[in-house]
Write a structure and sequence with these properties.
Elements: H1 14-26, E1 28-30, H2 31-38, H3 42-55, E2 58-62, E3 73-77, E4 83-89, E5 93-100, E6 105-112, H4 119-137, E7 144-150, E8 154-155, E9 161-164, E10 169-172, H5 174-181, E11 186-189, H6 192-201, E12 210-215, E13 219-225, E14 228-229, H7 261-264, H8 266-278, H9 286-289, H10 298-310, H11 314-338, E15 342-346, H12 348-352, H13 354-368, E16 378-381, H14 386-402
Parallel strand pairs: 4-7, 7-11, 12-15, 15-16
Antiparallel strand pairs: 1-3, 2-3, 4-5, 5-6, 8-9, 9-10, 12-13, 13-14
The structure holds zinc ion.
Protein backbone atom coordinates (compact mmCIF):
# COMPACT_ATOMS: atom_id res chain seq x y z
CA UNK A 1 0.00 0.00 0.00
CA UNK A 2 1.45 3.35 -1.04
CA UNK A 3 1.46 6.18 1.43
CA UNK A 4 -1.18 8.86 0.76
CA UNK A 5 -0.13 12.14 2.45
CA UNK A 6 -3.75 13.07 3.26
CA UNK A 7 -4.23 10.47 5.98
CA UNK A 8 -7.66 8.91 5.77
CA UNK A 9 -7.27 6.41 8.60
CA UNK A 10 -7.80 8.34 11.79
CA UNK A 11 -11.15 9.69 12.82
CA UNK A 12 -9.51 12.91 14.08
CA UNK A 13 -8.26 13.59 10.58
CA UNK A 14 -11.75 13.52 9.11
CA UNK A 15 -11.74 17.27 9.75
CA UNK A 16 -8.58 17.70 7.67
CA UNK A 17 -10.37 16.20 4.71
CA UNK A 18 -13.48 18.24 5.46
CA UNK A 19 -11.52 21.52 5.45
CA UNK A 20 -9.60 20.57 2.31
CA UNK A 21 -12.83 19.69 0.52
CA UNK A 22 -14.35 23.06 1.55
CA UNK A 23 -11.30 24.91 0.22
CA UNK A 24 -11.45 22.94 -3.03
CA UNK A 25 -15.06 24.02 -3.38
CA UNK A 26 -14.90 27.65 -2.24
CA UNK A 27 -11.32 28.62 -3.11
CA UNK A 28 -10.57 31.11 -0.27
CA UNK A 29 -12.30 31.19 3.11
CA UNK A 30 -11.85 33.01 6.40
CA UNK A 31 -11.71 30.85 9.50
CA UNK A 32 -15.22 31.88 10.56
CA UNK A 33 -16.59 30.98 7.11
CA UNK A 34 -14.82 27.63 7.34
CA UNK A 35 -16.36 26.94 10.75
CA UNK A 36 -19.82 27.77 9.48
CA UNK A 37 -19.56 25.71 6.27
CA UNK A 38 -17.82 22.72 7.87
CA UNK A 39 -19.95 22.81 11.02
CA UNK A 40 -16.95 22.75 13.37
CA UNK A 41 -15.95 24.90 16.35
CA UNK A 42 -13.44 27.72 16.19
CA UNK A 43 -10.73 26.04 18.30
CA UNK A 44 -11.02 22.80 16.30
CA UNK A 45 -10.71 24.80 13.08
CA UNK A 46 -7.60 26.62 14.38
CA UNK A 47 -5.92 23.34 15.33
CA UNK A 48 -6.73 21.67 12.01
CA UNK A 49 -5.74 24.68 9.89
CA UNK A 50 -2.43 24.93 11.81
CA UNK A 51 -1.79 21.24 11.17
CA UNK A 52 -2.60 21.59 7.44
CA UNK A 53 -0.35 24.68 7.25
CA UNK A 54 2.49 22.76 8.88
CA UNK A 55 2.08 19.95 6.34
CA UNK A 56 2.10 22.59 3.60
CA UNK A 57 -1.42 21.91 2.28
CA UNK A 58 -2.80 25.39 2.98
CA UNK A 59 -1.50 28.94 3.02
CA UNK A 60 -2.91 32.04 4.68
CA UNK A 61 -3.11 35.43 3.03
CA UNK A 62 -4.43 38.78 4.25
CA UNK A 63 -7.98 39.41 3.02
CA UNK A 64 -9.73 42.68 2.32
CA UNK A 65 -12.68 44.20 4.08
CA UNK A 66 -14.70 47.37 3.60
CA UNK A 67 -14.97 47.69 7.39
CA UNK A 68 -12.42 49.41 9.58
CA UNK A 69 -10.41 47.24 11.90
CA UNK A 70 -8.43 44.07 11.36
CA UNK A 71 -8.70 42.39 8.00
CA UNK A 72 -9.69 38.70 8.05
CA UNK A 73 -7.01 36.17 7.19
CA UNK A 74 -8.01 34.02 4.24
CA UNK A 75 -7.12 30.34 4.03
CA UNK A 76 -6.57 28.67 0.67
CA UNK A 77 -4.98 25.56 -0.80
CA UNK A 78 -1.25 25.76 -1.44
CA UNK A 79 -0.98 25.06 -5.21
CA UNK A 80 2.63 23.84 -5.06
CA UNK A 81 2.32 21.53 -2.06
CA UNK A 82 1.67 18.47 -4.19
CA UNK A 83 1.02 17.37 -7.75
CA UNK A 84 -1.08 14.81 -9.59
CA UNK A 85 -1.00 13.15 -12.98
CA UNK A 86 -4.04 12.51 -15.15
CA UNK A 87 -3.48 9.98 -17.94
CA UNK A 88 -5.82 9.08 -20.78
CA UNK A 89 -5.01 5.82 -22.59
CA UNK A 90 -6.61 5.92 -26.02
CA UNK A 91 -5.99 3.50 -28.94
CA UNK A 92 -4.58 6.46 -30.92
CA UNK A 93 -2.58 8.27 -28.25
CA UNK A 94 -1.55 8.71 -24.64
CA UNK A 95 -2.32 12.04 -23.05
CA UNK A 96 -0.58 12.92 -19.80
CA UNK A 97 -1.43 16.05 -17.82
CA UNK A 98 0.52 17.23 -14.77
CA UNK A 99 -1.57 19.23 -12.30
CA UNK A 100 -0.90 21.19 -9.15
CA UNK A 101 -2.97 20.88 -5.96
CA UNK A 102 -5.47 23.50 -7.17
CA UNK A 103 -6.12 21.38 -10.29
CA UNK A 104 -4.30 23.71 -12.67
CA UNK A 105 -2.58 21.84 -15.50
CA UNK A 106 1.04 22.99 -15.48
CA UNK A 107 2.41 20.73 -18.20
CA UNK A 108 1.18 18.07 -20.60
CA UNK A 109 2.37 15.64 -23.19
CA UNK A 110 0.56 14.00 -26.09
CA UNK A 111 2.16 10.81 -27.45
CA UNK A 112 1.03 8.96 -30.54
CA UNK A 113 0.57 5.30 -29.66
CA UNK A 114 1.14 3.92 -33.15
CA UNK A 115 0.03 0.43 -34.12
CA UNK A 116 1.36 -1.22 -30.93
CA UNK A 117 -1.48 -1.13 -28.37
CA UNK A 118 0.08 -3.68 -26.03
CA UNK A 119 0.04 -3.10 -22.27
CA UNK A 120 3.84 -3.33 -22.21
CA UNK A 121 4.20 -0.58 -24.83
CA UNK A 122 1.85 1.71 -22.85
CA UNK A 123 3.69 0.95 -19.59
CA UNK A 124 7.05 1.62 -21.26
CA UNK A 125 5.84 4.99 -22.58
CA UNK A 126 4.41 5.99 -19.20
CA UNK A 127 7.51 4.88 -17.31
CA UNK A 128 9.63 7.20 -19.46
CA UNK A 129 7.30 10.16 -19.92
CA UNK A 130 5.99 10.60 -16.37
CA UNK A 131 9.48 10.96 -14.84
CA UNK A 132 10.32 13.09 -17.92
CA UNK A 133 7.53 15.54 -17.11
CA UNK A 134 8.65 15.70 -13.46
CA UNK A 135 12.19 16.35 -14.53
CA UNK A 136 11.39 19.12 -17.02
CA UNK A 137 9.13 20.88 -14.49
CA UNK A 138 11.74 20.26 -11.73
CA UNK A 139 9.11 18.81 -9.43
CA UNK A 140 10.20 16.57 -6.58
CA UNK A 141 8.66 13.06 -7.10
CA UNK A 142 8.03 13.01 -3.34
CA UNK A 143 5.38 15.66 -3.94
CA UNK A 144 3.30 13.50 -6.29
CA UNK A 145 -0.01 12.69 -4.65
CA UNK A 146 -1.08 10.16 -7.24
CA UNK A 147 -1.50 9.19 -10.84
CA UNK A 148 -4.97 8.64 -12.26
CA UNK A 149 -5.50 6.66 -15.43
CA UNK A 150 -8.59 6.27 -17.55
CA UNK A 151 -9.48 4.17 -20.56
CA UNK A 152 -12.58 2.90 -22.33
CA UNK A 153 -13.80 -0.41 -21.03
CA UNK A 154 -14.84 -2.42 -17.99
CA UNK A 155 -12.60 -1.42 -15.09
CA UNK A 156 -13.12 -2.57 -11.49
CA UNK A 157 -12.63 -0.24 -8.56
CA UNK A 158 -9.48 -2.30 -7.78
CA UNK A 159 -8.00 -1.20 -11.11
CA UNK A 160 -8.50 -4.48 -12.94
CA UNK A 161 -9.34 -4.06 -16.64
CA UNK A 162 -11.59 -6.98 -17.52
CA UNK A 163 -12.13 -5.75 -21.08
CA UNK A 164 -11.14 -2.77 -23.16
CA UNK A 165 -12.16 -3.73 -26.67
CA UNK A 166 -10.80 -0.52 -28.32
CA UNK A 167 -7.33 -1.35 -26.92
CA UNK A 168 -7.76 -5.12 -27.25
CA UNK A 169 -7.00 -5.61 -23.51
CA UNK A 170 -8.50 -8.42 -21.46
CA UNK A 171 -7.95 -9.24 -17.79
CA UNK A 172 -5.15 -6.75 -17.15
CA UNK A 173 -4.15 -5.87 -13.54
CA UNK A 174 -3.43 -2.30 -14.66
CA UNK A 175 -3.21 -0.69 -11.22
CA UNK A 176 -0.79 -3.38 -10.02
CA UNK A 177 1.29 -3.05 -13.21
CA UNK A 178 1.53 0.71 -12.83
CA UNK A 179 2.35 0.49 -9.13
CA UNK A 180 5.38 -1.63 -9.97
CA UNK A 181 6.73 1.33 -11.98
CA UNK A 182 5.81 4.26 -9.76
CA UNK A 183 6.31 5.00 -6.14
CA UNK A 184 3.06 6.88 -5.69
CA UNK A 185 -0.60 5.83 -5.47
CA UNK A 186 -2.32 4.76 -8.69
CA UNK A 187 -6.03 5.22 -9.41
CA UNK A 188 -7.67 3.59 -12.44
CA UNK A 189 -10.99 4.86 -13.71
CA UNK A 190 -13.31 3.93 -16.52
CA UNK A 191 -15.62 6.26 -18.42
CA UNK A 192 -17.38 7.52 -15.30
CA UNK A 193 -14.60 10.05 -14.94
CA UNK A 194 -15.86 11.67 -18.16
CA UNK A 195 -19.13 12.49 -16.48
CA UNK A 196 -17.28 13.82 -13.42
CA UNK A 197 -15.36 16.06 -15.82
CA UNK A 198 -18.68 17.38 -17.16
CA UNK A 199 -19.86 18.23 -13.67
CA UNK A 200 -16.50 19.75 -12.71
CA UNK A 201 -16.30 21.96 -15.79
CA UNK A 202 -19.96 22.92 -16.15
CA UNK A 203 -21.18 24.17 -12.77
CA UNK A 204 -24.57 24.97 -14.35
CA UNK A 205 -25.12 21.24 -14.89
CA UNK A 206 -27.26 20.49 -11.86
CA UNK A 207 -29.19 17.43 -13.07
CA UNK A 208 -29.33 14.38 -10.80
CA UNK A 209 -30.50 12.09 -13.62
CA UNK A 210 -28.05 12.04 -16.49
CA UNK A 211 -27.60 9.57 -19.31
CA UNK A 212 -24.09 10.05 -20.71
CA UNK A 213 -23.44 8.41 -24.08
CA UNK A 214 -19.95 8.24 -25.54
CA UNK A 215 -19.26 7.32 -29.16
CA UNK A 216 -15.58 7.49 -30.04
CA UNK A 217 -12.97 4.72 -30.32
CA UNK A 218 -15.22 2.82 -27.93
CA UNK A 219 -18.97 3.08 -27.34
CA UNK A 220 -20.18 3.25 -23.76
CA UNK A 221 -22.52 4.92 -21.34
CA UNK A 222 -22.57 6.23 -17.79
CA UNK A 223 -25.79 6.58 -15.86
CA UNK A 224 -26.20 8.98 -12.95
CA UNK A 225 -29.56 8.36 -11.27
CA UNK A 226 -31.01 10.29 -8.35
CA UNK A 227 -27.54 11.75 -7.77
CA UNK A 228 -25.70 8.41 -7.71
CA UNK A 229 -23.48 6.85 -10.36
CA UNK A 230 -24.72 3.33 -10.95
CA UNK A 231 -22.08 0.63 -10.85
CA UNK A 232 -23.72 -2.82 -11.08
CA UNK A 233 -22.91 -6.18 -9.49
CA UNK A 234 -19.66 -6.83 -11.36
CA UNK A 235 -18.78 -3.23 -12.37
CA UNK A 236 -19.44 -4.07 -16.02
CA UNK A 237 -22.09 -1.40 -16.27
CA UNK A 238 -22.97 0.87 -19.15
CA UNK A 239 -21.52 -1.40 -21.84
CA UNK A 240 -23.96 -0.31 -24.54
CA UNK A 241 -21.27 -0.85 -27.16
CA UNK A 242 -21.68 -4.58 -26.62
CA UNK A 243 -25.42 -4.73 -27.20
CA UNK A 244 -25.82 -7.06 -30.17
CA UNK A 245 -27.69 -5.03 -32.79
CA UNK A 246 -27.30 -7.49 -35.66
CA UNK A 247 -26.81 -11.19 -34.93
CA UNK A 248 -23.98 -12.62 -37.01
CA UNK A 249 -22.60 -9.11 -37.77
CA UNK A 250 -18.90 -8.18 -37.71
CA UNK A 251 -16.71 -9.55 -34.93
CA UNK A 252 -16.33 -7.13 -32.01
CA UNK A 253 -13.27 -6.68 -29.78
CA UNK A 254 -15.22 -8.49 -27.04
CA UNK A 255 -15.43 -11.66 -29.14
CA UNK A 256 -19.16 -11.46 -29.91
CA UNK A 257 -20.55 -10.69 -33.32
CA UNK A 258 -22.74 -7.76 -34.32
CA UNK A 259 -22.20 -5.50 -31.28
CA UNK A 260 -23.09 -1.80 -31.65
CA UNK A 261 -19.39 -0.93 -31.20
CA UNK A 262 -18.46 -3.18 -34.14
CA UNK A 263 -20.63 -0.92 -36.34
CA UNK A 264 -20.38 2.65 -35.07
CA UNK A 265 -17.11 3.10 -33.14
CA UNK A 266 -14.39 5.19 -34.82
CA UNK A 267 -12.14 2.21 -35.70
CA UNK A 268 -15.15 0.19 -36.99
CA UNK A 269 -16.29 3.07 -39.21
CA UNK A 270 -12.80 3.82 -40.53
CA UNK A 271 -12.33 0.14 -41.34
CA UNK A 272 -15.75 -0.02 -43.08
CA UNK A 273 -14.88 3.05 -45.17
CA UNK A 274 -11.51 1.51 -46.12
CA UNK A 275 -13.22 -1.78 -47.04
CA UNK A 276 -15.76 0.06 -49.21
CA UNK A 277 -12.95 2.04 -50.85
CA UNK A 278 -10.97 -1.14 -51.67
CA UNK A 279 -14.15 -2.60 -53.16
CA UNK A 280 -14.44 0.39 -55.50
CA UNK A 281 -16.85 2.55 -53.47
CA UNK A 282 -16.29 5.49 -51.10
CA UNK A 283 -14.31 7.22 -53.85
CA UNK A 284 -14.45 10.56 -52.02
CA UNK A 285 -11.84 9.05 -49.63
CA UNK A 286 -9.26 8.54 -52.39
CA UNK A 287 -6.89 11.12 -50.88
CA UNK A 288 -7.14 9.53 -47.45
CA UNK A 289 -6.10 6.05 -48.60
CA UNK A 290 -4.23 6.26 -51.92
CA UNK A 291 -0.48 5.77 -51.86
CA UNK A 292 -0.37 5.68 -48.07
CA UNK A 293 1.95 3.06 -46.60
CA UNK A 294 -0.06 2.91 -43.37
CA UNK A 295 -3.76 3.38 -42.74
CA UNK A 296 -4.62 6.80 -41.31
CA UNK A 297 -5.98 7.04 -37.76
CA UNK A 298 -9.77 6.65 -37.41
CA UNK A 299 -10.00 10.28 -36.21
CA UNK A 300 -8.35 11.47 -39.46
CA UNK A 301 -10.60 9.37 -41.72
CA UNK A 302 -13.72 10.42 -39.84
CA UNK A 303 -12.96 14.13 -39.86
CA UNK A 304 -12.96 13.82 -43.66
CA UNK A 305 -16.23 11.89 -43.46
CA UNK A 306 -17.75 14.77 -41.53
CA UNK A 307 -16.62 17.19 -44.25
CA UNK A 308 -18.18 14.99 -46.97
CA UNK A 309 -21.46 14.83 -45.04
CA UNK A 310 -21.56 18.64 -45.05
CA UNK A 311 -20.93 18.54 -48.81
CA UNK A 312 -23.90 16.13 -49.07
CA UNK A 313 -21.84 13.35 -50.64
CA UNK A 314 -24.17 10.37 -51.20
CA UNK A 315 -21.85 7.72 -49.72
CA UNK A 316 -20.99 9.81 -46.66
CA UNK A 317 -24.65 10.63 -46.00
CA UNK A 318 -25.78 7.01 -46.31
CA UNK A 319 -23.15 5.96 -43.78
CA UNK A 320 -24.26 8.81 -41.51
CA UNK A 321 -27.91 7.61 -41.65
CA UNK A 322 -26.78 4.09 -40.79
CA UNK A 323 -24.82 5.25 -37.72
CA UNK A 324 -27.48 7.67 -36.53
CA UNK A 325 -30.23 5.04 -36.79
CA UNK A 326 -28.31 2.37 -34.91
CA UNK A 327 -27.28 4.80 -32.18
CA UNK A 328 -30.58 6.59 -31.65
CA UNK A 329 -32.46 3.28 -31.39
CA UNK A 330 -30.27 2.28 -28.43
CA UNK A 331 -30.49 5.82 -26.97
CA UNK A 332 -34.32 5.63 -27.06
CA UNK A 333 -34.21 2.25 -25.27
CA UNK A 334 -31.97 3.70 -22.57
CA UNK A 335 -34.31 6.68 -22.09
CA UNK A 336 -37.14 4.17 -21.55
CA UNK A 337 -35.00 2.26 -19.04
CA UNK A 338 -33.53 5.10 -16.97
CA UNK A 339 -35.85 8.12 -17.31
CA UNK A 340 -33.08 10.78 -17.44
CA UNK A 341 -33.80 14.50 -17.68
CA UNK A 342 -30.42 15.16 -19.33
CA UNK A 343 -28.74 13.24 -22.13
CA UNK A 344 -25.11 14.14 -22.85
CA UNK A 345 -23.66 13.11 -26.21
CA UNK A 346 -19.89 12.72 -26.02
CA UNK A 347 -16.98 11.45 -28.10
CA UNK A 348 -15.66 12.56 -31.46
CA UNK A 349 -18.28 10.67 -33.48
CA UNK A 350 -21.10 12.32 -31.49
CA UNK A 351 -19.39 15.66 -31.93
CA UNK A 352 -19.30 15.27 -35.71
CA UNK A 353 -22.88 13.98 -35.99
CA UNK A 354 -24.36 15.95 -33.10
CA UNK A 355 -27.26 17.62 -34.94
CA UNK A 356 -28.30 14.37 -36.63
CA UNK A 357 -28.02 12.39 -33.36
CA UNK A 358 -30.11 14.92 -31.44
CA UNK A 359 -32.82 15.21 -34.10
CA UNK A 360 -33.07 11.45 -34.58
CA UNK A 361 -33.25 10.75 -30.84
CA UNK A 362 -36.06 13.34 -30.53
CA UNK A 363 -37.93 11.82 -33.50
CA UNK A 364 -37.59 8.32 -32.08
CA UNK A 365 -38.69 9.44 -28.64
CA UNK A 366 -42.08 10.41 -30.09
CA UNK A 367 -42.58 6.88 -31.43
CA UNK A 368 -40.48 4.61 -29.24
CA UNK A 369 -40.30 6.18 -25.77
CA UNK A 370 -43.15 5.61 -23.34
CA UNK A 371 -45.04 8.79 -22.41
CA UNK A 372 -42.43 10.89 -24.17
CA UNK A 373 -44.70 13.96 -24.19
CA UNK A 374 -44.58 14.01 -20.38
CA UNK A 375 -40.79 13.89 -20.23
CA UNK A 376 -38.71 17.02 -20.37
CA UNK A 377 -35.32 15.93 -21.61
CA UNK A 378 -32.42 18.22 -22.38
CA UNK A 379 -30.02 16.78 -24.95
CA UNK A 380 -26.63 18.51 -24.88
CA UNK A 381 -23.16 17.98 -26.31
CA UNK A 382 -20.38 17.10 -23.89
CA UNK A 383 -18.48 20.24 -22.98
CA UNK A 384 -15.39 18.45 -21.77
CA UNK A 385 -12.69 18.24 -24.44
CA UNK A 386 -9.49 16.21 -24.37
CA UNK A 387 -7.82 18.33 -21.69
CA UNK A 388 -10.99 18.14 -19.64
CA UNK A 389 -10.85 14.37 -19.44
CA UNK A 390 -7.53 14.39 -17.60
CA UNK A 391 -8.89 17.28 -15.52
CA UNK A 392 -11.82 15.02 -14.60
CA UNK A 393 -9.38 12.31 -13.48
CA UNK A 394 -7.54 14.71 -11.18
CA UNK A 395 -10.86 15.98 -9.84
CA UNK A 396 -11.90 12.37 -9.12
CA UNK A 397 -8.63 11.59 -7.28
CA UNK A 398 -8.92 14.69 -5.09
CA UNK A 399 -12.54 13.89 -4.43
CA UNK A 400 -11.55 10.37 -3.30
CA UNK A 401 -8.80 11.72 -1.06
CA UNK A 402 -10.78 14.53 0.52
CA UNK A 403 -14.27 13.02 0.69
CA UNK A 404 -15.48 12.74 4.26
ZN1 LIG B 1 -18.79 -6.45 -28.26
Amino acid sequence: MKKVPIDSKLAGQRNERLILSMLRRYDKLSQSQLCRLAGIGSSTASTIVARLREKGFVIETPGTSADRGPKPTLIELNPGCCYLFGVEINPSYLFIGLFNFTEKMIDKIHISLGPDHSVQHVLDLLSVNIPGLLSRTQIDPQKVLGIGVTLSGSVSSQGWVSLSSPLGWKNIPLKENLESFFDFPVFVYNNRVRLLAEFALNPELKSRNVLYLNVANGVGSTVYLNGVLISGASERYGEIGHIVVEAGGPVCGCGNKGCLEAFISGPALASQIHKDFMAGGADCFANAFKEKSTLPLPEEVLSQWSMFIKQKNTYAMALCDFVVNHFSKIAAMLINCYDPDTVILAGYISEQLYDSFEQNIRDRMKKEVYDSSLRNIEIRPAGAGKDALVKGIVNAILQELTDV
